[in-house]
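for the writeup, i need someone to sanity check this before i put it in the appendix. the sequnce is what the collaborator sent (i think, or maybe the updated version? ugh). structure was predicted straight from it, no edits. if anything looks off just tell me and ill rerun, i have time this weekend
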Amino acid sequence: MNFDLTMLNIEIFTALLAMAVLVIGLIVPKEQKYGLGYLVSIGLTGILFLSFGFYGVNAQILDGMYFIDDFAVFFKQLFLIAAILVTLSATLYVRKMGSHYGEFFVMMVFAALGMMILASAGDFVTLYLGLELMTIAFYILTGFKKGDSKSVEAGVKYLILGAMSSGILLYGLSLVYGLTGTTIITDVATQVKALNGMPPALLVGLVFVIAGLGFKISAVPFQMWSPDVYEGAPTPVTAFLAVGSKAAAFAVLLRLFMVAFPAFSPYWKLLFAGLAALTIVVGNLVAIPQTNIKRMLAYSSVAQAGYIMTGVIAASTAGVKGVAFYAMIYVFATIGAFTVVMNFSASTGSDEIKDYAGLAQRSPLMAAVLTLCLLSMAGIPPLAGFAGKLYLFSSIVNEGYLWLVVTGLVMSMASVYYYLNVAKVMYMADPTDDAPIIVPAGAKATLIVAMAVTVFLGVWPEPLSVLSQLAAKSLLPF
């Protein structure tokens, strides 16, 4: 079991960063803690640059319990980028929340570490440890505003439903282990091939696994927690939960079903197709009447999970590439949108869409970024979301799922309605307050980066396409 410890440098440095921030937060005076958010952003940026050196390694360590491949590296970079943008934009917001400033960022880093472990997990035990590290950190973060009844309610709901979904996932994995005699994902594939058909117990196990992961990705009918948690949690937590937790669950889902259960793909592809269609339709239709922007973005996030799921259905390199590409551009669009929501809420105390009236006059940057990010999620060219949906839909169009592509396209056009409704309020309605909204430096940097990347990858998607292809080929080398 000997291996080079430097292969775990990404995880080791992330853990050390969290520990360092925790210690610093305990020993420095309160007035000197307010630089910890920027310290975390700088540290995570350094780890992000370090991660590029791991492309091409494509190795298994700890007897197959941990993968260091391009697929895992790509998703670790996604988590790092999301954490950097969220911490950079949230420094002033967290300061206004009051106490425990340093602990907030410590939990953010630990949540990112849990996501990294999930992306590299090569067996069920490692997978579950990573899942619980991420989820427990989010339990704390969701209820972080102890004086806010909505935040406490969101934390309790997420704790109860999250614990239930984790138990369902664990039970499903235990059934798979009982029938295959191994927890190593690659060995499960070997044992499954030797089975004569699909035993009923294994079918039940797969259904439980899908249900457990369906909660993490907010797929219908497992999305019931999303609106309340998204609305009640601190906005930076909502942003990180919407992109990081979802992407980590998709990374696990891809590795499990593409590597361990390709022999049963006709069964689970049909199930995922039904879930994807239901998720796309319900997410978009329920988002239309929402008047609270965080709840609207919650249901939009549900719909986005349905779009991403189409890449899983393809069960091919093209499908995995589509999932990886779309998950990355979704990070910038979602965090850009939530950064606007966070700053608007901090300035006005409101999350109601009607109160965004005249935002284009009060903060042209915030209005422009929110409009571009929403249109990208709708798949409007030449923004990055159009390229992402093109990769996803093209991966299944020749697989007999043309009906799903049509459903996705129709619902994408429906989503334009509620996205443009927000833009209409910002640009065409008169503001009730003419006072300009001041955007802090960290949040302004996040907004500019989110807008620039969303436009750049829409016009020239090639750089991200290459990295997505590397990730796909390392997961499915054939």
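The chain has 19 helices and two strands. The chain has one domain: 5-475.
thx in advance!!
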